[in-house]
Amino acid sequence: MTVDTSAAAPTLSSAGREKPSMTRKPRRTAGGIVWQVLQWVPLVGFSLLFIYPFAWLLAASFKPRGQVFDNALIPRTFQPENYAQVWNELPLLNWLGNSLFIAILAATLVTVMSSIVAFGFAYFKFPGRGILFGIVLATMMLPGAVTLVPQFLIWNNLGLVGTNVPLWGMNLFGSAFYIFLQRQFFLGLPREIFEAARVDGVGYWGLFWRMAFPLSVPSFVIVFLFEFQASWNNLQAGLIYLNAGSEEGYTVPLGIASAMTKYSPTNGGHGDYQFVMVAALLVTLPMILLFAFGQRYFVEGVATAGRKG
Amino acid sequence: MKKTRKALVAVTAGVTLFALTACGGGGGGTGATEFTDEIEGTLNVWGFENADEVGTSRVEVADAAVGESDVTVEIEAAAFDAQKFTTRAASGNVPDVVQMDRQFVATYAAQGLIVPLEECFALYDLDPDERWYPQVVDDVTYDDQVWAVPQFYQPPAILLNQRVMDEAGVTAEDMDTSNPEAFLAAVEAMTVMDGANPTRMGFDPQGPTKAGLWMLSFGGQTINEDGEPALDDPANVEAVEFLKSIYDLQGGYANAKSFVDSFDIFGDNNSFVADQVGGAVFDQWYVNVLTPYAEQVQINAVPVHSQEGEPFTVAAGSSFVIPAGAENPSAACRWLLELTSQEAWLAAGEARNATTIDDPDRNGINAGVFTGSPAADQAIRDEFVVESAFPGFDQTIATYYDVAAEGESFGSSPAGQQIQTELQNAVTAALLGEKSTEDALADAQDAAMRAYNQVAGG
Amino acid sequence: MTLTKDRAVADAAGADERTSTEKRPGHKAKKYNRKEAIAGYLFVAPWVIGFLIFTLGAMIYSLVISFSHYQLATNTARPAGFSNYEALVQDPKVMMSLGNTLYFAILAVPLQIIFALLLAMLLNNATKGSAFFRTVYYLPKMTPAVATAAVFFLLLNGNQGAINKGLAAIGIQGPQWLLDPDWVKPSIVIMTLWGVSGTMVIFLAALKNVPRDLYEVAELDGAGPVRRFFSITLPMISGPMFFNVLVLTIAALQTFDEAYLLFYRDTVQAAPDASLFYAVYLFQQAFRQFNFGFASAMAWLIFVIIMIISLIQVRVGNRFVYYESER
């Protein structure tokens, strides 16, 4: 039994790439063209379904209050002022700053710490390693609900409820899924180069810091992007930990949720949903940009997780 | 590097483990709070979200009064958030004054998170029953003590759209809820349907949110004299059945509700301008929303009637409390009484007047200010609420003022919030047909009783 | 992510075996380099400490709390015996929310699997532009739930929403999605289908790994497309299929964001009973009412349920999944 390096490590393998030799050669016949058009009908149709809510959101963010509901993809009254007013209406700049700060910190911490731990599991031999790693994997199954209340009490006793520390603090200890992912990557690196470095007098920390770390940039990027997205989108932690703080300390998801309530007529709001739409667009845009630059990593990260099954 | 990391991890672990084992203690001390009239220091206030001229003018009066004693007031403008309040109380980090809806006061009184104000009132020779409407005082009384300083009073009544009524041949007399059959006939006459969906509602009773009003007007109750939930009162069932028949005339609750959700309530095309409703239950503040559109709407008002035929409304509104563990309760006490004094209310009336009478956008209509204090209401009404060019508005404002005195308290309960939530959920379930009305209210009663036992037993 | 467990443990064990047998064939007992072992412990220490405090410690703490009445305001707990667990049975909302959640999972997971597989097959067959379409299909996955909810909240409005306007255009009277108890869960299913592309990508990767020659041989044998799908495609992607079912089921059982944002964000507004999901009720009990004891008991109930469902799925899965990589 050997470690399957081809599947395990170099996560950037087959997932996203086409295999030209395998694909059917397009036949340049009339039938071939018809066939291609027929294939495109559902593809384009689904594209429209997937794009429509974005177009709707973009349009709604430019509408005056009374027209947000009207479903027109080209606003009847074009009101770009929404984008100027929203900053006075909601502390959106604070929210974006908080979300960015938390997401970067959370992603950086979890990438570095998970990778340290993963290297520990991948390279070193020590009693109990198999069992410990089994526990790492087992914790991935644990429903978050079980630890929700005690974790809150721990942070509350530390006096940190109402601050954003609980939203990134636990990343100091790494995270099971990422440890697993990065260990797979490290296992793909040939052990011989580390043995050679040991002979040259490189210390254990040096093995990691100067060799493994620079070699595993692709898996870092995957972990960083995944955690950045998870942190950016996280609503529940905000509801639990930041609601007790001031409105300026909110993250964007929490802020939007509270704005939806604030503007809701049942709560004495004025139904200014156009500001919610602007905020919703602004919270989505960074993710779209992130995807534009890191698409390869996202797709391959997801596919890798799946292939491990 | 490894060493520092090790040290960091060790410290973090140590601190956390200590925290784990050392739970207990913490905030929430409920030692007796002493009030004195010698005040100083900083006063932290939590409330006044979206403060308008009525709020700011009174804050000015109160700030000036306590400012003489060298107190600085710092206001954090935020909506009341129950979760935020409890979490902060747990960490001992509370402001000196919190603004909250009166229905929540008993909950926090029962948990010992706020302090009774008898001593504060005594210090300034104030008799709550003289200063405020008795039903308003009932709202914030728990365990025979008064726990809050009442602020506004928002009596609901029925706003009518005269244009729609005329078109359907309905008169204000038909809109008498003590005669359900005639009332339903009038609603049906005004309703316009497009298939299963209404395009004009004859009447919007604001089902779940105003369910308590309807129940009390039918002689029911939501909280009994002992502060326990009483959601399964047979009269409540009747009230919900009445709501259900109103909605059934208009496509059912779901269709009517999503029609109402699409209203531009505060905008140029609101439901009275657009003739989307014949009548609707609204709190008094909505008249202020409509004044800019006085030229475009024709409104009128009638009170809700009890089943005995008497004008009826409920006491609802906001209040101020002083949390247990507040650092400056004495300044809080003084500031709150100044904030709700006759002088402050008159300043508010004047400020409101300045923004309405002289503002052409508001068509010279001053819809008044409604407070927890009958004397303040009377003074503001006498001085500032004058006849306008719109008799419909004048009649509407008078209707709200007249019915205010008839308001009935919902009562107070340590499980006030949960009772309110269960009530709304039950009414929603009943109106949607998820459950029969009896079952929905019985289930809600069980759930509310469980919540009550949890709070009262703890 | 879960299924990885057994395989990865096997891998880890394999790695140990390999290195030890290489060095000392015949020795059962492993010998460790002491310095290396210490360094290894130090490397994994951050996770071990985090696990001891925030996972194991928290679980034990949770168990303790579930047998107490915890008062957050005063930070005190008094013993409650089994009363929190008895309340799980007595409080009809527990079973109602559990029923809602299971119903949602049974409705959502198959639809998500079918839709994701359909999209993946379309992309896999496309000769041109598949990368472009994949990007478009993936965008909703990047959209924060709060933005999705804000948009669908209005799209799903029964009278004015675009979805019902669209249905009306083809002569269908759409339901009151967010109000009619029968349509609340399908509404959330629609939202999750919109964001199904994570599952789709996993299927797509799997489809690309199916050797083409298998299809060619089958085609020569006269197997039609349906036959080829069921006798080649499905077995060849059974591993990822199984993974997707498991992950989607666990996610569905923990659905929170969508239900909370659409129905429970606004505490003044009433919500239909049909929209009460287990995770939402647990959140309300824990962080709105601060009934920590009861909420902890609820957490243990869903923990046990998820474990049982996962175990059943693993059992069933092991019987049907074809591991192409088994060596």
Overview of the molecule:
The complex is a heterotrimer of chains A (309), B (458) and C (327). Chain A is built from 13 helices and no strands. Chain A is mainly α and 309 residues long. Chain A has a domain at 91-262: MetI-like fold. Chain A starts with a helix and ends with a helix. By secondary structure, chain B is α+β, with helices and mostly antiparallel strands. Chain B is 46% helix and 13% strand. In chain B, the strands form five sheets. Chain B has a five-stranded mixed β-sheet. In chain B, strands 10-7-11 form a three-stranded antiparallel β-sheet. In chain B, strands 12-13-15 form a three-stranded mixed β-sheet, with helices on one face. In chain B, a hairpin with a 2-residue loop joins strand 8 (192-194) and strand 9. In chain B, helix 18 runs antiparallel to helix 19 (437-457). Mean pLDDT of chain B is 87; it is low at 1-31. Chain C is built from 15 helices and two strands. Chain C has a two-stranded antiparallel sheet with strand order 1-2. In chain C, strand 1 (68-71) and strand 2 (76-79) form a beta hairpin. Chain C is globular and about 75 Å long. The two termini of chain C are 22 Å apart. Residues 1-28 of chain C have low confidence and may be disordered. Classes of the chains: A mainly alpha (309), B alpha+beta (458), C mainly alpha (327). Chains in contact: A-B, A-C, B-C. The interface between B and C is large, with 56 and 43 residues.
The span between the termini of chain A is 19 Å
Percent in strands of chain A:
under 5%
Question: CATH class of one domain in chain A, anyone?
Answer: Mainly Alpha
The radius of gyration of chain B is 24 Å
Question: In percent, how helical is the residue content of chain B?
Answer: 40-55%
Strand content of chain B: 5-15%
Taking pLDDT < 50 over at least 5 consecutive residues as the criterion, the unreliable ranges of chain B are 1-31
Indicate the radius of gyration of chain A in whole angstroms.
24 Å
The CATH topology of one domain in chain A corresponds to MetI-like fold
Biggest sheet layout of chain A: none
Count every beta strand of chain A, where a strand is a DSSP E run of 2 or more residues. Answer: 0
